[in-house]
Amino acid sequence: MHRIQYLLAFTFLLSAFGLKAASILIPMDEAQKDHLKSYGIAFWVLKNGEEVDWLLNYRGGSFVTKYDPKTENECKVRGVSYEVLADDKVSQIIAQINDPSVNMDVVKLQTAPRMAVYSPKTGVKPADDAVILVLKYAEIPFDLVYDEEVLRGDLNKYDWLHLHHEDFTGQYSKESRGRYAEKFQEIKASQEATAKKFGYSKVSKMKLAVAQNICSFCAGGGFLLAMCSGADSFDIALAAQNTDIVDEQYDGDPPDPQAQSKLDFSRTLAFQNFTVVTGSYPSGRSGGRFSNIDVSNTRHIAQEDDFFTLFDFSAKWDVIPSMLTQNHERVIKGFMGLATAFDERKIKSTVTIMGELKSANEARYIHGEYGKGQWTFYGGHDPENYQYNPNEPPTDLSLHPNSPGYRLILNNVLFPAAKKKKLKT
């Protein structure tokens, strides 16, 4: 008997014996056919005004919601594995989770966050950003915003913001040569026009204003996820707000020779005591693309050895990092990007490291608080493409529906929906 037929028969038997099919469990362990679309189901339930219980560390971080034929049908349509549970079974699971001796907890998700992705609206393929790719695959709605929307103050419309692999230092990712030369000129012209429109003399000054507005969004209670160079260049721009670190070929004048001594690390979210690279790329390879925060060009790790391990947090006490690290695997395949991994020696002591390659002092997945808000930085470009090439076709996530690396992105998507009093850290 097929699984769907079995579930229908099971539901009929429950009714026949007077038992209520109270809940739908979406397992997130190896029994799940499509982990990524499962997050989309949870988001869909929230968007429809219902609640979802996130069972931390129970079967890979499973979801439970009250039984509704519409939810069951949505699971079938999207190809998501589910189980129909009676009241007594749900009670048994909750009792197991509430046992003080086990590392599990229940987090109630109540309201779907309003989603935005900071990314150019033209000239960017879905493959250019893993978050855009997985949000579309999971069928989670979002808006695109970029410099104009941020500078106009539109971020107050949203609860959650992702930063694509942007260069917030105003150096256009230092991609002015070779196969990137044409793209560089196009991006440079577009961003210079926006800077002029808003009264900024340089793109670097405009990008700094954008970064500061994003900081204000986070400080006011917003949730921020940045990947790849969107993470390290963001902090570098904030630290360099009182100096000029941009090379002449990008803004028409040389950088401040005293720039390093003028960096203000009190302005940053995650990183400190780093050294900026003021020259062009690839001449600055030994020090990284923007600074020595990223270890992309100094690491010597073969692809077959490139993994990072998620920390095992206390679900009952360290609820936030526990939510952000829910997975069916604890060892995650590494992947490269403009910013691949962060030197742990450059990370502030207040930051929580959630995933690392300890032998190389590399942090891949980190989290912290800023004002009333939360932020997460995730190194690398695409969890299912080890070394991304812009000429490649987009990653087909239907071939990777159980991706542990992509699950970390989607943990951040549901995190803001959590009932606030459940956040104990």
Can you give keywords for this protein?
single chain, 10-stranded mixed beta sheet, globular, alpha+beta, 425 residues, 12 helices, 5-stranded antiparallel beta sheet, 15 strands
How is this structure best described in words?
The protein folds into two domains: 3-109, Alpha-Beta Plaits (2-Layer Sandwich), CATH 3.30.70.790; 115-422, Rossmann fold, CATH 3.40.50.880. The protein is globular. It has helices at residues 3-16, 35-47, 69-78, 87-98, 130-137, 147-152, 181-197, 203-219, 229-239, 248-251, 319-324, 404-414; strands at residues 21-26, 52-56, 62-66, 83-86, 105-109, 115-118, 143-145, 160-163, 223-227, 307-310, 331-333, 342-343, 352-357, 362-370, 373-378. With 425 residues, the protein is of the alpha+beta class. It is 30% helix and 17% strand. The chain is built from twelve helices and 15 strands.
Explain the layout of strands and helices.
Elements: H1 3-16, E1 21-26, H2 35-47, E2 52-56, E3 62-66, H3 69-78, E4 83-86, H4 87-98, E5 105-109, E6 115-118, H5 130-137, E7 143-145, H6 147-152, E8 160-163, H7 181-197, H8 203-219, E9 223-227, H9 229-239, H10 248-251, E10 307-310, H11 319-324, E11 331-333, E12 342-343, E13 352-357, E14 362-370, E15 373-378, H12 404-414
Parallel strand pairs: 6-7, 6-8, 8-9, 9-15
Antiparallel strand pairs: 1-3, 1-4, 2-3, 2-5, 10-11, 10-13, 12-14, 13-14, 14-15
Helix pairs in contact: 2-3, 2-12
Organism: Mucilaginibacter corticis
Protein name: Asparagine synthetase B
